[in-house]
Each structure stands twice: as C-alpha cells, then as structure tokens.
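Changelog-adjacent note: as of this version, every example in the card shows the full chain rather than a window. The one below runs 181 residues end to end.
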Amino acid sequence: MVGFYIFVSLMIACLLVGCPVLSKKPLAVPYHQLYQTIADPEVQLFLNAGLQLLRRVHGPLEFSVNEVLLRHSKKNGNGYHYAIAEGFSLTEIVDAEAGIFAIYISVPPSHREFYPLLAHEIGHLKHPSLIEDWEMEGFCMLFSEDLCGQQGQDWSIWKLRLCADSDDPYARAYHQALQRR
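Full-length structure tokens:
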C-alpha cells in the first residue's frame, strides 16, 4: 500500500512540475556526441598499446584506425534530451573511410572491469563490421586477456566469470577461441 502512495505522489508531482519528455535522437546527431568523454592519460596509453598489439600481432585490420573516440556510455549534457541507451560497451564505426571509431565502455576508468572491457572493445577494431559474431567475440576475449596481462591490468574478474558459467555465450566463445589457439 505504501508503494501505491509513493507512485501516486510521483505522478502528481510530474503533473504539477512537469516531467521531462525525452525525444528520439535525430539522425544527424552522432551518438558519440551524446556520451561522456574519457580523457584519462593512462587510458589513452592503454588504448595506444592495444592498437600497437592489434596491428603487430593480429593485423592487417579491416580498416585503418586513425582516431578512437573513448566514451563512458553515460549521457552527457546533450544526451539527456534523448531517449538513448546507457550502460553498454560497444565499438562503433563513425567514419570508416577516415578511420574514425568510437568505443563506449559501460563503467568509468576507476571500475575494476574497465580495462578488460576496453581491451575487449579494442579487439573489435580488427574487424569492426562483424556484429553478433561469436568467433569474433572469442577473439576479443582472448585479446583482452593478453593485452591486460601485458599492460599489468587485472583480468581475474573476467576469468572467474568465464569459468563459472559455461552457459554464458561469452564463456563459450572464449573457450572455443582457446581451443583454436
């Protein structure tokens, strides 16, 4: 019953004050402009090391990578006006011809999963047009493990997760990639 009163109170408050209405993002507005920029120098060094490893060991890449826009997938001031998702990790092709990509990470750099997630998304730069490809996901998991190991970043949280749940599709992709190695 208390929950009902809270709900009614919130509805009345919205009617009296006015709830913000989120609009659909216009096609002309790039997604990367709507999320928080990650400008940490340590993160940039990690990204550069990841790109070097990817080119040296796993090249050639599908597209030339000239610029990577790093974003925390949390709306910035411009993004609050739009009904867009938050809390995801993704590699996006912004301009393939110019070699511009955006990497969105679901957690901030201080979170213990940040570097494993970033390394995984860097791996997607090998072939960013492959979407929902589990062989690519397996590659990215191995790449994440290798890059984090080389750069001294803890990968144990993912190792535990991948070994704990054999039904997780990422765990299956990781183990299959290990077998192909």
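Structural remarks: Confidence is low (pLDDT under 50) at residues 2-18.
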